[in-house]
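Chain A, query sequence.
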Amino acid sequence: MGHGTQVTILAVGRTYGIAKRADPYIVKVINSYMDDGGKHVTGLDVPQAIDVGLEHILEVIRARNLQGKAVVTCSLFFEPGGLGQPVDPLTAIFTKHLAALADLGVVWVQAAGNNGLPVERDDKVVYLGQKLPSVLGTDGNSMITVGGTYDTGRYWPFTSPEGPPGSQTPGSITLWSQAQDVACINP
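Chain A, predicted structure.
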């Protein structure tokens, strides 16, 4: 079970979830998807898989008349050159789908990521403005970017920060949530 699935379970869990009556629809987009016939298709490159997955989400929202009611959560992100992927196609894909979701009244909830405090000597801090899709989050669009805190509400140092002090780095953390010691069902 991946991080995104666990976050969804926390949000819509029937006993402790904050949206107990929600009907989750989980789509995994990295390197595989289910076609219209229910066949598992693999071998897509990352940009194509993300495009297909997000287009599928748009189709489901329209088909189920969920405009203004749905929320899309995303816990993946890409650094420039990450996974060997070019940034430009991913930027265009995420920008297109963020706009399409906003047109349908759908909010995109994006994890800030865990590249704040370097863990190893060779690790580096990766700011929101240095990765996709979080770089697209602004105060003026429908992306909500979630940063991490300790259970006391103090800033969790591993969360990816907005940018160095005084910088004009894009990306904006919209809200904060507990990021450590969160219990989740794990089969």
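The beta strands are 32-34, 40-42, 71-74, 107-111, 143-149, 175-178. The chain has one domain: 3-178.
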